[in-house]
Amino acid sequence: MIYHRDIRIEFNHCDPAGIVFYPRYLEMTNSVCENFFREVAGYSYAEMMAAHQGTPTVRAEVSYHAPTRLGEVIDWRLSVTRLGTSSIGLRNEAHCGGLLRVTVDLTLVFVGGGPDGDLRPQPWPPAVRDRIAAFAGAG
To answer: How far apart (Å, rounded) are the C-alpha atoms in residues 85 and 117?
Structure first.
């Protein structure tokens, strides 16, 4: 399955030439992931933060295929490539005007506060893992 989220390119995303400034793609990717966790996994970043948990990115590989300009709307497409005990592989693709603009492969790790306050990897909460697995077709 594919999770979709449209993002309109605004002035704050662009360099002076009106083209998306490359690190803004990672900010958009984070937004897509945040919405995926709230809407699909049923565990929002707000809920995670309140429980001293989170899903930090531990790996990001980005490929830029074509520029995106101010005013265009990107169709972000997120798919689950791997679901581990405490990690997840996600592929985010940005499409616009029939062109693939950027691909971002991510690894996120589910972490929670340890006894000394450190954020340590821990297994996904069962309900969250079940929802992600069902979405990915592995459930």
So the answer is: 21
pLDDT in tens, 43-53: 999 999 998 99
Separation of alpha carbons 102 and 64, rounded Å: 5
pLDDT digits (tens, 9 = 90+) for 44-82: 999 999 989 999 999 999 999 999 999 999 999 999 999
As a whole number of angstroms, the distance between CA 101 and CA 93 comes to 8
Cβ count within 10 A of residue 18: 15
Does the pTM of the predicted model rise above 0.85? yes
**Separation of alpha carbons 11 and 28, rounded Å:** 14
| Token pair recorded at residue 61 | 């590989």
- Position 6 scores a pLDDT of 97
Other CB atoms closer than 10 Å to residue 137's CB: what's the count?
A: 8
